């Protein structure tokens, strides 16, 4: 499956580094929600859902994490380990995150506020919906 | 001077922790820009500016940092060392950040895109403007 990364400019100098994310400039949507996962316990696998509509960008602003992606047709796995690189997740992609490093802070920018109705948490339902979407 | 902190809910469980920031819910403005400072060299002091209009919230999502604040009338210093707590910075506050821990990731949410004209980088000019603002 196609995986889209977004590489961010490096605004660092001799003092340190800075990355800036701006809606309509390097973020292809309106930023309505920002969340971050941290202090994840060892051997934990998180995610296990897809979104019906919501789009997001995931960035490991500290540490590293593996992201398993599944569009209902193909699966792939990517590693996020750079504050300069975001993973763009369109709607209807099943994701599972694993192998969080102990210092991992996984930041996510989303184009929607939290809405439980937007989540697909059952994998079989996800496969059925993804199949229907490909046919339509 | 008055310092406003915003405490965020803790959405953690046995897997790890999660903090969510949402415009109009726990963030009192539209999130148009997100930036993060990291890999700051030891003994560096950053900032040295105020914003004419821009509002922002600073969060140490990893590590810790000291923030010196100055409204042109009073100064104070706060430490940011928790991913659960944001420092709300209204417009016209001079800020300098120092004592970044080596693991510090300082995330900032702002209500405006980057605009160099919004920065006041000269401290004397800042004091003059702040004085005028108090009189008006």
Layout of helices and strands, plus pairs?
The structure is a homodimer of 136-residue chains.
Chain A: E1 4-7, E2 17-22, E3 33-38, E4 46-51, E5 56-62, E6 65-70, E7 75-80, E8 85-89, E9 94-98, E10 105-110, E11 119-120, H1 123-135
Antiparallel strand pairs in A: 1-8, 3-10, 4-9, 4-11, 5-8, 5-10, 6-7, 6-9
Structural summary, described in words:
Two copies of one chain form a homodimer. Chain A has 136 residues and is mostly beta strands. The first copy, chain A, has a single domain, classed as Jelly Rolls. Chain A has one helix at 123-135, and strands at residues 4-7, 17-22, 33-38, 46-51, 56-62, 65-70, 75-80, 85-89, 94-98, 105-110, 119-120. In chain A, the strands form two sheets. In chain A, strands 1-8-5-10-3 form a five-stranded antiparallel sheet, with no helix packed on it. In chain A, a hairpin with a 4-residue loop joins strand 6 (65-70) and strand 7. The first copy, chain A, is globular, with a radius of gyration of 15 Å. The interface between A and B is large, with 36 and 36 residues. Strand 2 (17-22) of chain A pairs antiparallel with strand 3 of chain B, so a sheet runs across the interface.
């Amino acid at each position: 499956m196609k995986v889209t990364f977004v590489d961010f400019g490096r605004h660092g100098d001799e003092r340190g580094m800075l990355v800036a994310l701006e809606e309509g400039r390097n973020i292809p949507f309106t930023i309505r929600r920002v969340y971050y996962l941290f202090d994840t316990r060892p051997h934990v696998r998180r995610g296990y859902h897809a979104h019906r509509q919501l789009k997001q960008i995931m960035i490991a602003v500290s540490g590293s994490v593996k992201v398993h992606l599944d569009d209902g047709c193909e699966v792939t796995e990517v590693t996020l380990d750079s504050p300069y690189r975001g993973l763009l997740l369109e709607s209807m992609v099943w994701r599972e995150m694993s192998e969080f490093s102990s210092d991992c802070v996984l930041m996510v920018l989303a184009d929607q506020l939290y809405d439980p109705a937007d989540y697909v948490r059952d994998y079989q339902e996800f496969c059925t919906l993804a199949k229907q979407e490909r046919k339509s």
